[in-house]
């Protein structure tokens, strides 16, 4: 007969350790889940936002188009309204980012009467051509970014920001 019998003390130790571990895991799991939840959450990257702009109303003149999307900052979600300068180039729809590549101010189309048909940044008089190309001898050192675009049921959709595809650097 084997002499490996479990004593009453050992049995109690095993049982209490097991139950204690189970309870500790039950308390810690929700905390760990809460701490890493933003990391596990699916990101909305690459999604398009529907605007109220009809594609048929776009012209060759850049027009400011607003769009709103939900932004998740860890556990905090908020609606953010952004805008793009959108125009038609033949059959193509071009959406230019309004964020100046110098220090991030907002550019306007035709914002400087002395330099019509250009994007103008009022902060340090930065200027860009219609395709976003920065004009030499003004502060910006690179072209304005673009947004990805597509059409849904005749309305414009704006996607993520991408580097300018029309300007060779
Ligand atoms: S931030 Fe636009 S020119 Fe400086």
Automatic annotation (TrEMBL):
Bilayer topology annotation: Single-pass membrane protein
Domain Rieske span(s) in chain numbering: 84-158
Keyword check for Ligase: no
CDD domains to which the protein is assigned, alphabetical: Rieske
Gene3D superfamilies listed in its UniProt record: Rieske [2Fe-2S] iron-sulphur domain (2.102.10.10), Single helix bin (1.20.5.700)
Keyword field contains Electron transport: yes
Localization per record: Membrane
A molecular-function term among this protein's GO annotations: oxidoreductase activity, acting on paired donors, with incorporation or reduction of molecular oxygen
Gene Ontology annotations for the cellular component aspect, listed alphabetically: membrane
Coiled-coil stretches noted in the UniProt entry, renumbered to this chain: none
Record note on quaternary structure: The main subunits of the menaquinol:cytochrome c complex are a Rieske-type iron-sulfur protein (QcrA), a cytochrome b (QcrB) and a cytochrome c (QcrC).
Family per similarity comment: Belongs to the Rieske iron-sulfur protein family.
Name of the featured protein: Menaquinol:cytochrome c reductase iron-sulfur subunit
Provenance organism: Kurthia sibirica
